[in-house]
Amino acid sequence: MTLTPEQQSEIDAQRASGTTTLRATAPGMEQHLYTAIPVLDHGFIRVIDYMGDDAAITQAARVSYGKGTKAVSNDEGLIRYLMRHWHSTPFEMCEIKLHVKLPVFVARQWIRHRTANVNEYSARYSILDREFYIPAPEHLAAQSVVNNQGRGEALSGEEADRVLRYLRDDAMRAYDHYEEMISDVGQQGLARELARMNLPANIYTQWYWKVDLHNLLHFLRLRADAHAQYEIRVYAEALCEVVRDWVPFAYKAFEDYRMGGATLSSGALECVRRMLKGEEVTQENSGMSKGEWREFMGVIEG
């Protein structure tokens, strides 16, 4: 990722203009403010603003306990209890606003998480930059033969070279035509809102994305998962590091109960109980389908 001199100057100015505040701040998050964290070849995430910290979560939870019960639990223990029992409202008391630069096809996956506020760079009014996501060779993969949404083995040799060449050449050709169509030199020039439809899905866009912690953790649970598409997963992984520094108690509970935990059906729990009693349980006598049994054994065997 390369920042323009103007972008770097803006970041330097923002980080230099410290202000005094009476509100709670998170030291770890203060270190992230405004700084661009590189993702993919031209992308980044930047924390623009945030509200709340671990204490804000416990403060919101304790308000419902009644007067005189403030010390019911220590903060970390209470946060773990809230996470363990799927209490969502206290986590909604924390919010974060991000500036994200990402390929359009990644943005179309990201926007499916609708519980956020989004304002995207408009190609109706502005001209998009000549920046495209081109995968590194090790991330060029064939279609998976077992998962319609997944990737198989990496491409190699002449095929990999040809695919990379197509991706670069097609993107550049489309942008050349885009520039030519919107130019008003010797012609009227096509409206930007029409010319943009010729641009490929790997061109970069930017947006501001504001979300509360509860919905952000839901996003991370799905998109930082090993099964998520690589190009959105790396954004989620970068965000995980930010959240870990922002709300360390909440993030540790999230790691333990969401990312590292597992949810079992009533039938799966019954199978576990039978196994603990020494009974031999198989897919045939478990009451599960083959797919359910395969996932169950993946949890049990690790």
UniProtKB/TrEMBL annotation:
Alphabetized InterPro entries for the sequence: Thymidylate_synthase_ThyX, Thymidylate_synthase_ThyX_sf
Entry EC no(s): 2.1.1.148
Cofactor: FAD
PROSITE patterns according to UniProt: THYX
Catalyzed reaction equations: dUMP + (6R)-5,10-methylene-5,6,7,8-tetrahydrofolate + NADPH + H(+) = dTMP + (6S)-5,6,7,8-tetrahydrofolate + NADP(+)
Pathway: Pyrimidine metabolism; dTTP biosynthesis
Keywords: FAD, Flavoprotein, Methyltransferase, NADP, Nucleotide biosynthesis, Transferase
Residues that hold dUMP according to the record: 109-112, 120-124, 196, 223
Active site: 223 (involved in ionization of n3 of dump, leading to its activation)
Binding site for FAD: 89, 112-114, 120, 212-214, 218
Cofactor note: Binds 4 FAD per tetramer. Each FAD binding site is formed by three monomers.
Pfam assignment, any one: Thy1
GO-annotated biological processes: dTMP biosynthetic process; dTTP biosynthetic process; methylation
GO MF terms held by the record: flavin adenine dinucleotide binding; NADPH binding; thymidylate synthase (FAD) activity; thymidylate synthase activity
Biological role: Catalyzes the reductive methylation of 2'-deoxyuridine-5'-monophosphate (dUMP) to 2'-deoxythymidine-5'-monophosphate (dTMP) while utilizing 5,10-methylenetetrahydrofolate (mTHF) as the methyl donor, and NADPH and FADH(2) as the reductant.
Subunit organization: Homotetramer.
NCBIfam families recorded: thyX
Protein family per UniProt: Belongs to the thymidylate synthase ThyX family.
Name the UniProt record assigns to this protein: Flavin-dependent thymidylate synthase
High-level lineage: Bacteria, Pseudomonadati, Pseudomonadota, Alphaproteobacteria, Rhodobacterales
Gene: thyX
